Amino acid sequence: MKKLLKVALIAICLVSAIDVAQAQVKIGYINFAQLIDQMPETAKVKTDRDAYQKQFMDQLTAMNTEYQQKLTIYQKDRATMTDAVRTAKETELSDLQKRMQTYSNDAQQKVEAKVNELTKPLFDKARGAVALVAKEKGYNYVLDSSQTDLIVSPPADDMLAAVKAKLGLK
Question: How high is the pLDDT of residue 166?
Fold first, then answer.
């Protein structure tokens, strides 16, 4: 009797496992970059990024102007300089180049951090809308078609229009 009960229990488990394995997995896709570009907040993010970036560009331009002026003077007066003065000027020019490179790298990192800070609410809003539409339409997974080349992509699974409607975009 115990053997019969065990066999019946195993059979029930196998049937349940087959039913779970046959469950429909629904996959949707959306061009997330296109969605972000169409959101009105994107224009403000770009404006804020450009204004922030301009501060660094202005400083780099000033540093480059100073470097060019010192280089021109050095090249003009080089023939008449003593070895000690020439070495000092070359060191000064080299140091200025290094400072410009370091400043440029730091500025780039700061701009990237600022862009991430500015775009986080925008991305969160878009991801939230995608999640809502996916849940409403029964999608288990949503792929970003701007990051992935989809070989087959039926129009019915493109969620862009539904997400745009959810966000109130045209």
Answer: 87
